[in-house]
Design goal:
The complex is a heterodimer of chains A (464) and B (245).
Chain A lengths: L15 E4 L14 E4 L15 E4 L6 E5 L4 E5 L4 H8 L4 E2 L11 H6 L7 H4 L6 E7 L5 E4 L5 H7 L8 E8 L1 E2 L4 E9 L2 H12 L4 E6 L11 E8 L20 E2 L11 H13 L6 E6 H5 L5 E2 L10 E8 L1 H17 L7 E6 L14 E9 L3 H16 L3 E2 L9 H7 L3 H5 L9 H6 L7 H5 L11 H4 L1
Parallel strand pairs in A: 1-3, 2-3, 14-16
Antiparallel strand pairs in A: 4-5, 5-9, 6-10, 7-8, 7-9, 11-13, 11-15, 12-13, 12-18, 17-19, 17-20, 18-19
Helix pairs in contact in A: 8-9
Chain B lengths: L2 E5 L4 H12 L3 E6 L2 H13 L4 E6 L8 H12 L4 E4 L7 H6 L1 H29 L2 E6 L12 H21 L4 E8 L19 H13 L4 E4 L2 H11 L2 H4 L5
Parallel strand pairs in B: 1-2, 1-4, 2-3, 4-5, 5-6, 6-7
Helix pairs in contact in B: 1-2, 1-7, 5-6
Classes of the chains: A alpha+beta (464), B alpha/beta (245).
Organism (chain A): Myxococcus xanthus
Protein name (chain A): FAD-linked oxidase
Pfam family, one (chain A): FAD_binding_4
């Protein structure tokens, strides 16, 4: 059986799969633990279940209802954001929050409480989830909403798929008058420049996000380009819906694993330098289709293959404004000293809108995301250092992008962890969850249910 | 096809076909055996833009229901101009070899129930001198092989019946389209090892609809199966009978 990978392709684990077909079906009885798995766009091991079973939700891909008058959509948990956009965008609706790829499922968006370029205005995806059904391994089904089973609602949003299977969900969409975004690109010369322009942009722009040249040093440390934009006003309605802009991940493709030598300090430096200077140092405005604005990387199928067989590690942290300047400086310096360049680094400000999810990652401050080709120990050491710097700054690291976070750091980042644990389904677990909770090692509960417990993974190494 | 009866609408290929038809704004009448599953497919089609969707829970092995079912579809959609016959079972070859009852069950669902339904539908379409009958058969019907000849026989018999029906209905402007998919990657085959020959239900559905639109006679989907089956049919029986297929 072809094993499922996470998007970073690290770690690689052995696990079973079980394809779900109908939302009214019962969960399968398996030795070992279960974990829902959508499109596998989580980078590390939060979507993996070494020694257990992945419940593949791609078969739960049906719509249930859509009201074009109110913009409320109800669908099964395996429906992708791409599928939703194709249905609703031509009818004048858009996702209230969208991550940088549309190839994630609704269930995954809830389980990771994803955020987007509008966090400072809209908060997380979970805020727009009106209700969903949670199926537990004991066969019970609960409709969860802010005013119905609110604890289950809070535990499941951002709950990493551990509280049970989300079978369907209802989401409030946001109206648009056309599929275009008025986008402006503003260069900034260093980290202070970013903080100034980002804060200044929050008031007038729904969407903001910045690309950082992570190899620039000294006075230029943290220089980059800030993208800000709003959906175009109705005077642009007359433009034809440019279908050619819709990437469905089948056009350009990375056909194979790229050999390691393609990605080195020199090529990444050249790319970053060219990218920055393309802009001539001046702000530039243009009208663009939403697809390349929100999903630039979706146009290249399997872009994760540029990192080769060994995969890559992504690191995303958020640090509060009080410590942001110094902490980000240290983090950027540490990563540029690592000799392991990050191809794509992204800076973004998070607003103070709270999420209903107890384990939600976004919180007020500045978030930084970086990719590192996996070169073994050296890379792991780098990421662990960045983790430490984040914790010292009073920040947090994003589980959906993590493969290395320690149990102590997890507990520090997610103070509601104890409360959350009581809602974890006894039959559900993930490689991530066992890693950050080494005491609750797998399958003890399968034994309690009176079933034969399968042997635990050969060693903890098998999990990592 | 604007007003379409889909028989066995909860199968993977039928679901994918229903989605494409719904996106085109067709009116649909869907049947399936499981009420909850049929309801899921019905709501999905309605949400995706079908002009109208009605459904009926029915076991097509009960031949006595066929006349009324067709009548209900005609009434609900105010006429019919298309049929997608998608119900069928794979059966278990080993079980079928042991038991006539198991063999009969496969023949009954895949061949006899299809013939019973097509008898009613053909007369209606012949009388209205319009319409497209699309029937999902299989490459397995092209040649009997020890690994699944009971299923293959049910589809082979169906193919011959459809040839005759096509011959009869051509002058009445009714198209009879035989669709022969190869391996299809459905959620239910997710546990099987996959090779390059597995096609997605979506791909099969697109091939099916394009064949229906151009009123083809017999199509293999994906097209590569035309070549594969040509080779398989060409092998002399003296050689073929010794092969492990």
């Amino acid at each position: 059986m072809k094993s499922r990978e996470s998007w970073g392709r690290y770690p690689q684990v052995e696990q079973q799969t079980h394809a779900l077909v109908w939302r009214t079906d019962a969960l399968p009885r398996k030795d070992g633990s279960l974990l829902p798995h959508g499109l596998g766009r989580s980078y590390g091991d939060s979507c993996l279940n070494a020694g257990g079973t992945l419940l593949l939700t791609s078969g739960l891909d049906r719509f249930i209802a859509f009201d074009p008058a109110t913009g409320v959509i109800r669908c099964e948990a395996g429906v992708s954001l791409d599928t939703i956009l194709r249905l609703v965008a031509p009818r004048g609706w858009f996702l209230p929050v969208t991550p940088g790829t549309k190839f994630v499922t609704v269930g995954g968006a809830i389980a990771n409480d994803v955020h987007g370029k509008n966090h400072h205005r809209g908060g997380t995806f979970g805020r727009f989830v009106r209700r969903f059904e949670l199926l537990r391994s004991d066969g019970s089904r609960r409709v969860c909403a802010p005013d119905e089973n609110p604890d289950w609602y809070g535990a499941t949003i951002g709950g990493l798929g551990l509280t049970g299977l989300i079978t369907w969900a209802e989401v409030q969409l946001t109206p648009i008058s056309n599929p275009y975004v008025l986008q402006e690109t503003v260069p900034f010369g260093n980290l202070d420049g970013f903080l100034d322009v980002a804060r200044a942009s929050e008031k007038d722009y729904e969407f903001t996000m910045a690309w950082v040249d992570c190899l620039a040093r000294g006075k230029k440390l943290g220089r980059g380009l800030l993208y800000r934009g709003n959906f175009a006003p109705p005077q642009f309605d007359g433009l034809p819906l440019a279908r050619s802009h819709l990437s469905h991940g089948v056009g350009l493709a990375v056909p194979m694993d790229m050999p390691a030598f393609c990605l080195n300090r020199l090529s990444v430096s050249a790319f970053n330098w060219l990218y920055y200077h393309r802009q001539n140092g001046k702000p530039k405005q243009r009208l663009t289709h939403y697809d390349p604005f929100f999903y630039p990387l979706d146009a290249i199928y399997a872009w994760n293959r540029i990192y080769g067989r060994r995969g890559f590690l992504q690191f995303q942290c958020v640090v509060p404004y009080s410590t942001a300047r110094d902490a980000l400086k240290e983090i950027l310096e540490r990563s540029s000293r690592g000799g392991l360049p990050s191809f794509l680094s992204v800076l973004k400000t998070f607003g103070d809108i709270p999420s209903p999810g107890w384990l939600s990652f976004p919180r007020e401050g500045v978030t930084l995301a970086m990719d590192f080709a996996n070169r073994g120990e050296k890379t792991w050491k780098l990421v662990e250092d960045l983790d430490r710097l984040t914790r010292q700054a009073g920040g947090a690291v994003y589980p959906a992008k993590d493969a290395l976070m320690s149990p102590e750091n997890f507990a520090a980042y997610f103070p509601q962890r104890e409360r959350f644990m009581q809602y974890v389904d006894p039959s559900f677990s993930s490689s991530f969850w066992r890693r950050v909770n080494p005491v609750s090692l797998p399958f003890s509960l399968a034994a309690e249910r009176g079933e034969t417990a399968s042997p635990p993974p050969r060693s903890l190494l098998a999990i990592r | 096809m604007k007003k379409v009866l889909v028989l066995g609408a909860t199968s993977a290929i039928a679901q994918a076909t229903v989605r494409l038809l719904a996106a085109r704004g067709a009116s649909l009448y869907l049947t399936g055996r499981n009420a909850a599953n049929l309801d899921a497919v019905t709501k999905d089609a309605a949400t995706r833009g079908a002009a109208k969707v009605e459904s009926q829970v029915v076991d097509l092995n009960d031949f006595d229901t066929h006349e009324a079912l067709v009548e209900a579809a005609y009434t609900a959609l105010d006429g019919l101009d298309g049929v997608v016959l998608a119900h069928g079972v794979l059966g278990d070859q080993a079980e079928a070899q042991r038991s006539w009852a198991a063999t009969e069950a496969v023949l009954r669902t895949n061949f006899l129930s299809a013939v019973s339904l097509l008898t009613v539908l053909a007369n209606r379409f012949e009388a209205q001198k319009a319409g497209t009958l699309v029937v999902i058969s299989s490459v397995a019907g092209d040649r009997g092989r020890q690994s699944n000849y009971v299923y293959g026989a049910s589809k082979g018999a169906l193919n011959v019946f459809l040839q005759g029906l096509r011959n009869r209905l051509t002058k009445s402007n009714v198209a009879v389209v035989t669709v022969k998919p190869g391996f299809v990657d459905t959620p239910m085959t997710a546990h099987l090892p996959k090779n390059k020959l597995f096609a997605s239900p979506e791909k099969v559905a697109r091939g099916l609809l394009s064949a229906a639109d151009s009123r083809k006679n017999e199509v293999y989907v994906p097209g590569i199966w035309a070549l594969i089956m040509l080779i398989i049919r060409t092998i002399p029986e003296t050689v073929f009978k010794r092969m492990k297929l």
